[in-house]
Design brief:
- This protein is α+β, with helices and mostly antiparallel strands and about 190 residues long.
- It has a single domain, classed as Lipid/polyisoprenoid-binding, YceI-like (Lipocalin).
- It is about 15% helix and about 55% strand.
- It has two helices and twelve strands; from the N terminus they run H-E-E-E-E-E-H-E-E-E-E-E-E-E.
- Strands 1-3-4-6-7-8-9-12 form an eight-stranded antiparallel β-barrel. Strands 10-11 form a two-stranded antiparallel ribbon.
- Strand 3 and strand 4 form a beta hairpin.
- The longest helix is centred in the N-terminal third of the chain and has 22 residues.
- The radius of gyration is 21 Å and the shape is elongated.
- About 20% of the residues are buried.
Amino acid sequence: MKRITQNLIILLIGMTMPFMALAQQQYQLKSHSLVISGTSNLHDWTANAEKVNGTFKIAVDNNKVTGINAFELKVDATSLKGSKGNIMNSKIVDALNAKKHPNITFKSTGGNITEKSGVYKVLSSGVLTIAGKSQNISIEAQSKVLPNGDIEFTGTKKLKMTDYNIDPPTAMLGTMTTGDEITLTFKVVLKTV
């Protein structure tokens, strides 16, 4: 009887291991579009993040994201390129104090996924650190599993520069001033490691 019980336990473990492996997988960034947009008293502006990386542990079941167990996204602050050229680029680096704080990071502390009419929304809580200042925030995104098994997340998030001790940049001896609120628009595609 003891041998039958042991064999049964081994069989059950063997049968559940593939499901455990599917329950959570490691992903990495395959491609990204991360655009910061804002306003000024003269014109609207954008900045693109050229260097982004991250690690993600995501649960997928039946071609649906069922859980995000952990993730960290890191943006090289010196890689932000503005729509108004090199002068704007240097203003961005200065405003972010990028020489002292070269990375912008978002580290997830939890989240949940909801489905409505076939659209899967992810609400992720975490710590966003910009220019050395950390804040707890929530970010909402839509997720979908692509036909090749990659995962795509898209969304937007409004932030205020002053919440991160960043003075909205000025130019032309102060005659051009930028608005405090910015919008982050993102699309990231992840692939399994």
